[in-house]
Design brief:
Pfam families: TMEM254. The protein has 123 residues and is mainly alpha-helical. It has five helices and no strands. The protein has one domain.
C-alpha cells in the first residue's frame, strides 16, 4: 500500500454533525425568514419559546443568523490556513476542507485541528 505524504488528507465529518448542523441552521433560517410556516403549536415548550423570540426579538434573531454564518465563513478561512500550515497542498482537498467547514463549522474544523502530519499513523 502506497504511503501518502499528507498533501491530500481529507476526512468527512460524522453523519451526526451533518444532520444536526443542517437541521439547526435550516430551522434558524426558517425562524428568521419564514416564521409563519413553522407549526409552533406542535413543538411544545420549544415552539412557544421560538414563537416568543420571533414575536419579540425578530431583529436580534436576524442579527444572530448573520453572526452564525459569519462565524462559519471565518471558520472556513481558518480551515484554509490550517491546510497550508499542515502541508495539505492539493487544491481539490483544500476546497473540500473549506466547503465542509463552511457548511458544518467546528465539527469539520475540529477534524482538521486534530490532524498531525508529523505523527506516524498506527493501524
Amino acid at each position: 500500500m502506497a504511503k501518502s505524504d499528507g498533501c491530500d488528507y481529507f476526512k468527512r465529518t460524522s453523519m451526526f454533525w451533518i444532520v444536526s448542523v443542517t437541521a439547526a441552521m435550516g430551522y434558524f433560517t426558517c425562524i428568521v425568514f419564514v416564521p409563519e410556516r413553522i407549526p409552533y403549536e406542535y413543538l411544545g415548550f420549544y415552539g412557544s419559546f421560538c414563537k416568543h423570540l420571533v414575536d419579540n426579538y425578530a431583529d436580534i434573531m436576524y442579527k444572530g443568523w448573520l453572526a452564525a454564518w459569519a462565524i462559519h465563513v471565518f471558520e472556513a478561512y481558518i480551515a484554509l490556513k490550517m491546510c497550508r500550515d499542515k502541508g495539505i497542498t492539493n487544491t481539490t482537498t483544500r476546497c473540500m476542507w473549506v466547503f465542509q467547514t463552511f457548511l458544518f463549522g467546528f465539527a469539520s474544523l475540529g477534524l482538521l485541528l486534530k490532524y498531525n502530519p508529523e505523527r506516524p499513523k498506527q493501524n
